[in-house]
Amino acid sequence: MSVITCVAPVNIAVIKYWGKRNEELILPLNDSISATLNVEYMRAKTTVMASPTFKENKIWLNGKEESFENPRLQHCMKELKQRARKNTDVVNWNIHVCSENNFPTAAGLASSAAGYACFVYAIAQLYGVEGDITAIARRGSGSACRSIYGGWVQWHVGKSDDGSDSFATQIAGVSHWPEMRILTLVVNSSRKKCSSTDGMRRSIATSSLLKYRVDHVVKDRVEGIIRAIKEKDFKAFAEITMKDSNQFHAICSDTYPPLSYVNEVSRRIIELIHAYNELRGTTKVAYTFDAGPNACLYLLEEDVPEVVALIQYVFPSDTERVEYFKGLPINPGSLSDELKVKIDIPKQKPGSIKYIIYTDVGEGARVLNDDNEHLLNDCGNPKRLN
Amino acid sequence: MSVITCVAPVNIAVIKYWGKRNEELILPLNDSISATLNVEYMRAKTTVMASPTFKENKIWLNGKEESFENPRLQHCMKELKQRARKNTDVVNWNIHVCSENNFPTAAGLASSAAGYACFVYAIAQLYGVEGDITAIARRGSGSACRSIYGGWVQWHVGKSDDGSDSFATQIAGVSHWPEMRILTLVVNSSRKKCSSTDGMRRSIATSSLLKYRVDHVVKDRVEGIIRAIKEKDFKAFAEITMKDSNQFHAICSDTYPPLSYVNEVSRRIIELIHAYNELRGTTKVAYTFDAGPNACLYLLEEDVPEVVALIQYVFPSDTERVEYFKGLPINPGSLSDELKVKIDIPKQKPGSIKYIIYTDVGEGARVLNDDNEHLLNDCGNPKRLN
């Protein structure tokens, strides 16, 4: 019997991935760039156990058994087995997989990226796979390739038809820009949404603006934001981040029928950030939105107290403080009366923002060495079920 | 003393005008196309009186005196005087102008287009201006040039730097497509918005997608929709209309900071129309949105009862029926239980749509020959003030 438990982080794109040039291989239309978030506060955790006694492959996600026949999962398994270098016995055994996120999947926080990164990373350890595994994680969920590494990560579009050059690399490590912080604002929403896969497919089929974005806009932005990250130029970084988020949502609107991922609360957050930056006379905060209404704000540590106070003022909580703030400890600053008056955004309904996760840039996927961390018991069954 | 009273209609663009290549002359970046609405239900009405006894030019808009020094108004006056062919006395007299809309200006229903069309048309009559006056109306408000004519109208982008070839022509007359109907859904909104002029300026300065739209998308759409109008091909007409509305709002999202004219109710209307078209198995209704949250729906007369019943079901009124429906008489159909079940859109808060104006395609600007219609009394003062 062989067992391993790993964790993998969430990543938040600042140059967006939208559209596959090859659906089977999950090859993107353009490069994308993200920061990897601290694995402490938002992560997938996965235990993989291989045993000659297991009659079949099994997988449990967040306490519920799911089918192992999922084609994306099968693609990852096939590539991992081809690249296995040790434990040929282990590679032939069946496996049990148990995976959990420490944040609500329903919150729409890119759980599949962390999940597939963790799955691929754990099995790669078990099978002794050497070299790059980001291209394998990509077969599970495109943006999973960016969750293998910590710090600032680039997923390269690649040129090859077989996808061999569409992998992720690190632009800068975790310690490169230590002042950077991320606030994830989890927005209340009951709206059902079109899955990213379906949405991308529809955009490719119908949006003429997407083609223009891919051919003429993204390249300069990628170069610009890499420069901004390397030089720690927050203003340049923030402006490219916001423009790219806005352009992604423009592509969604140009899709037919249109895709609408952000909602009225998201739009108020956008307004608030622009109003705040204007009042402060420089770009202090950047927003970015993926295929859902939650906002991720990038900002520097020194600005966190005031920005959190401002968010709390415009989007009051309807719960206790302890539930409103998650992640790193937050001490909201006091909001000057001047700011309250000048920020001309009406107070929103309590609970419009459900909670805030405060975090920083962190390391990539890693092994947990404590046996107590395993999510499977010695028989290969989940310790907890839903 | 010389006096005239005219009315001019509202027009609703199906190929959108967004962005000026010359701000002073109000020259657009691309052709646009609209239908002119029945002047009975939504119109500007303007009385112009010229008299040798008037000490100065004066203008009242919706019962409030405004400045005659407005540069756009001055540009129109200058061109009208240059083109005057009769009554040289009258042309040298000062004038009093009184103008009223029969729909709330605040509703964001392109009142400036009807207003300037009416102003220019009335003075052109008074001064005996011959030939095209749409290019003069354009100097007041770009889309005003399309409100001079009835039926289906095209505003040509033109090539000349002096704007002389940027005027409107009729694609088809009022009687060409007699089954066409328009439902204007006036959406509740307290949101202040960025004016079209400022919004356009910001889009030109920041949206790379706008340039692509202008250079590579609009031309095919203009050709396609003219063909659809001429052939009365509703499906083709409707799809181009919706795609162009969506692309306009995509450009708004790609603008920095982003412009957001539609709101959550607008988005629900979009969802509802797509869901309805899908259930009906063909495109029965088209939506289009200008720089505001109100929807204009194009549809054929035979489909009005069911569509109105559906809108009433999803967006219940919070007022009496008599106030909810304006314009042509409406008899909402009964909604089949099947449709209620299959349209998977939750009922919205009563009053989300304030009221519905039901109308058809109508004639352009014209003179009212009844002296009782004058908005100014014999002394040149408004009969009514606010």
From TrEMBL, chains A, B:
One of its GO terms (molecular function) is diphosphomevalonate decarboxylase activity. Pfam families: MDD_C (PF18376), MVD-like_N (PF22700). Its EC number is 4.1.1.33. Pathway: Steroid biosynthesis; cholesterol biosynthesis. Keywords: ATP-binding, Cholesterol biosynthesis, Cholesterol metabolism, Lipid biosynthesis, Lipid metabolism, Lyase, Nucleotide-binding, Steroid biosynthesis, Steroid metabolism, Sterol biosynthesis, Sterol metabolism. Residues 182-367 form the Mvd1 C-terminal domain. GO terms for biological process: cholesterol biosynthetic process; isopentenyl diphosphate biosynthetic process, mevalonate pathway. One of its GO terms (cellular component) is cytosol. Catalyzes the ATP dependent decarboxylation of (R)-5-diphosphomevalonate to form isopentenyl diphosphate (IPP). Functions in the mevalonate (MVA) pathway leading to isopentenyl diphosphate (IPP), a key precursor for the biosynthesis of isoprenoids and sterol synthesis. Belongs to the diphosphomevalonate decarboxylase family. This is Diphosphomevalonate decarboxylase.
